């Protein structure tokens, strides 16, 4: 006679299988996420110290950034003025069409050369703010360069004079400090110095 199996043990088996499958899925998902994290870590760019230091400490880089921002700002303001100007976009100049000889308006819109010159002059006078700012900046830069050159020139002249003075002083000292074997001063050098002094006074 066969023994009946306990239903408690029968019901546990599928649950264990389910738990096993669930754990496997979970482990698989975890491994997958881990691989993604590893890939992200490998794809990360290395820290560039040179560019960081350049951005933080370089005056040239900061000046370039400032110039770029100012240029953008000026252009933005200029475009705003153009958009807000009610007269902008209304004027449409008529061109002289050489091909259409049948029309009555041939040669009607040809402008006088003097008028063209005047318009060119007004265009030259009316410059946009960006060009004005650029010209001002170039002017200031040139003035600074000139000042720097003058300072360097003055410095060089000063150094030259100092060198000459030191040289003369050394020569004078040599002449005055010359002595004979017995320790007496040599008078020729001293007499030469006196002669030079007298000649300088007479001149």
Automatic annotation (TrEMBL):
Residues 1-15, 22-44 have a biased composition (Basic and acidic residues). One of its GO terms (cellular component) is nucleus. Residues 1-44, 90-111 are annotated as: Disordered. It holds the Pfam family rRNA_processing. InterPro entries: Fyv7/TAP26. Keywords: Coiled coil. Residues 130-171 form a coiled coil. PANTHER family: THYROID TRANSCRIPTION FACTOR 1-ASSOCIATED PROTEIN 26. This is Uncharacterized protein.
